[in-house]
From TrEMBL:
InterPro entries: Cof (IPR000150), HAD-like_sf (IPR036412), HAD-SF_hydro_IIB (IPR006379), HAD_sf (IPR023214). It comes from the Bacteria. This is Cof-type HAD-IIB family hydrolase. GO terms for molecular function: hydrolase activity. It comes from Paenibacillus ottowii.
Length: 260
């Protein structure tokens, strides 16, 4: 096993603050880690095309995207885990009867099955990314879809959870929930990278803040929750750092002894 260290960073609420801005201290910290010879990777619920600018800005080419369903190591795709096509068709049919829009996402693009849906536009706008959602109700047919956004409230979500056991539902917005393959997670995607690099568990680190980070934070030996994290992430983490907008990345790395 190598004694090299690897550090995984979530994006929203971790690398980026609530205004979707990256503190300069976070950017400098990433480059300082790389200068010391450590591996730095991203672990996010976003699709690859939704954080291309961040990868370029930080010069990072290893990442876990779609909450673990599409994994890239040093620019090469090393693992994929698409949604079950039959179950996705059934969920599409059922959602349409309730007028709940879906957004289908592969590694290249995303398309909604209802045009100009207000909830789709509202939820995507909160990401403040330069992306738009096209319309193609058949986009999920004949291609691998790694994540779907389902527009429903928290109260409506258990109905879908009870019917579609092939999927896990991870809420990220009051009007939208991520739909991913059952038992797929950032933690699983991370293992695809760490096993290939031969990095020991005690040399693995992860920073996150949301519900979709809880399994990653629970699994990773050195886990850090941001000060702005949800309660579940804070409870699962080995350490809680400051908020993203209070230089939480740098502070956490210094507390871990990875940066001085």
């Amino acid at each position: 096993m190598s004694d090299k260290k690897i550090i995984f960073f979530d994006i929203d609420g971790t690398l980026l603050d609530d205004d979707k801005k990256m503190p300069l201290t976070a950017k400098k910290a990433i480059f300082a880690l790389k200068e010391q010879g450590h591996e730095v990777a991203i672990a996010t619920g976003r699709a690859p095309f939704m954080f291309k600018d961040i990868r370029e800005q930080l010069e990072i080419d290893s990442y876990v995207s779609f909450n673990g369903q599409y994994v890239v190591l040093r620019g090469e795709v090393v693992a994929t885990n698409p949604l079950n096509r039959e179950a996705l068709q059934a969920m599409t049919d059922l959602a349409l009867t309730h007028n709940h829009a879906l957004v289908y996402m592969d590694h290249m693009d995303m398309k909604a099955n209802i045009p100009n849906d207000e909830l789709v536009e509202k939820s995507i706008q909160t990401l403040k990314a330069k992306i738009s959602v096209g319309y193609d109700p058949l986009y999920f047919q004949g291609r691998d879809i790694y994540q779907t956004l389902l527009m429903c409230t928290e109260e409506e979500e258990p109905f879908y959870e009870a019917v579609f056991k092939a999927f896990d539902f991870v809420r990220w917005h009051p009007s939208s929930v991520d739909v991913v393959p059952h038992a797929g997670s950032k933690a699983k995607g991370i293992r695809e990278i760490t096993s290939r690099l031969g990095i020991a568990a005690e040399n693995q680190y992860a920073f996150g803040d949301g519900l979709n980070d809880v399994e990653m934070i629970t699994t990773i030996h050195n886990s850090v929750a941001m000060g702005n994290s949800c309660d579940e992430a804070k409870a699962a983490a080995k350490m809680v750092t400051k908020r993203a907008d209070e230089d939480g990345i740098l502070y956490g790395l210094q507390k871990l002894g990875l940066l001085s």
